[in-house]
Amino acid sequence: MESRVDEVLPAVRPVDVVAFHNHNNELYFALRDLTRVAPEPVAISLPGYFVVAHLDGRHSAEQIREKFRCEFGRDVDRAEIERVVAALDQALLLATPRFEQVYDEHRAAYAAAACRDNRDNWPPADELRRELDATLAVGAAPPLAGPVGGIVAPHLDYRRGKPCYADAFAALAQATPAERYVILGTNHFGRGHGLVATAKPFETPLGRVPVDEELIASLENALGASLRGHELDHRAEHSIELPVHILQHVRAERAFSIVPVLCPDPAGAADPPDRIQRELDRFADALRELLARDPAPTVVIASADLSHVGQRFGDPQPSTRASLDAVETSDRRLLGLLEQRREREFVAEVRAAQNPTRICSVGCIYAALRTLPGHGFRLLRYHQAVDMDNDTTVTCAAAVMCGS
Question: Of 40, 71, 104, which one is at a domain's C-terminal end?
Fold first, then answer.
């Protein structure tokens, strides 16, 4: 990909970056596309990664050369930068027409598929059931004050999120089994900036779960807009399928349907936050009204993690016990607002602080509570999944929303 001297270079698409050392103990970075459009990760050296870090759609090759000279005290040939850009474009990691063509092919294939099938990413059924048994075995929920309308559970992997998965689903086990679960997740890697639903049944190692297409269509009719414009975002998104596995496991003898919806972030900066909050309000209000007219017993699940801290997530200083204690203090203060049913203040506080601990699920938590206005919010457990060796910590909560 050859460019003119002053031409702005294309931006790198959102990628996961993992540092590693090769056999010569040289520092490299693996770039991985979590949407699975780009099939293979790309390894790149530290100088190459410096170039990658400046591929933001605003820098030209000459500007990168100047910044490189200031950082490393030596020149880099324009041709080297262009080789990096060409390799990334070939690997589908840049926002270019080449990527758009392949993306359209993936979107068409998903639209034509009979189901959302992600079984290749999971162990066989027996092994998965053993993992779920171990996850849920530690759960204990106190007696509940009323009928369960919803829960908050993590979308961390089962090992790290075990305490909160266990308590959240222990609370759900006390409820009358529902016929339908509205699962509100987080759109971590997709292209949609609004609400995104899928009508594809979920095929998992534990079987197929149908989607309530009629309710999705009714929501779209009430909102006057499709929720499926970026349906492909669901293909690689884990925040819905993690609770689906657990529901399949604990409800193995009784059929149920799901309504999978990914929620945007009303506290983020990707889009005007007021617009996103209005979109979530309209969605939650429409969902609440539709459920009130529908006799099918339904539970709302917010599949939500909280803070993401550590150098792995971009913090400049290593985590310490004191810094993690400060994160817990902040998380618990925000959870306290939810316990008081001050969910709009919850959103406003995260937004005003510019989300310094990278809470990823403000949208789905807010939408779940707005859907259930007559329900309390009871925090069952708070948990920090800490990995000091890799300086990565993700926090989560288990909560139950009971009506009177």
Answer: 104
Answer yes or no: is 1 within a domain: no
d(CA 189, CA 270): 13
Helix (H, G, I), strand (E, B), or coil: what is residue 342? Answer: coil
Concatenated DSSP letters for 290-319? HHHH--S-EEEEEE-EEEEESGGGT-SS--
Return the SS3 of 150. strand
DSSP code of residue 18: E
Q: How far apart are CA 177 and CA 147, in angstroms?
A: 11
21 to 27, 44, 87, 93, 246: CA distances (angstroms): 5, 11, 21, 22, 37
**Do 98 and 181 share a domain, yes or no?**
no
- Evaluate whether residue 7 is within a structural domain: no
Q: Across residues 153-175, what is the average pLDDT?
A: 95
pLDDT digits (tens, 9 = 90+) for 365-386: 999 999 999 999 999 999 999 9
Report pLDDT for 138. Answer: 85
pLDDT per residue as tens digits for the range 192-228: 989 999 999 999 999 999 999 999 999 999 999 999 9
Co-location of 233 and 370 in the same domain: yes
Q: What is the pLDDT of residue 404?
A: 78
CA triple 281-181-351, angle to 5 deg:
35
Contact 379, 163 (CB under 8 A): no
Annotate 165-227 with DSSP letters as a single string: HHHHHHHHHTSPPPSEEEEEEE-SS-S-SS-EE--S-EEETTEEE-B-HHHHHHHHHHHTS-S
Q: What is the predicted pLDDT for the residue at 312?
A: 85
Query: Binning pLDDT at 50, 70 and 90, where does residue 269 land?
Result: low
What are 225's two structure tokens? 């807009």
CA distance 381 to 164: 6
Asked if residue 100 and residue 120 are part of one domain, the reply reads: no
For residue 326, what are the domain limits?
116-403
Residues 154 and 299 in one domain: yes
Compute the mean pLDDT over every residue in the chain, rounded to the nearest whole number.
93
Please state, in angstroms and as integers, the Cα–Cα distance from residue 186 to each residue in 60, 142, 218, 266, following that order: 34, 28, 22, 12
Do 68 and 211 share a domain, yes or no?
Answer: no
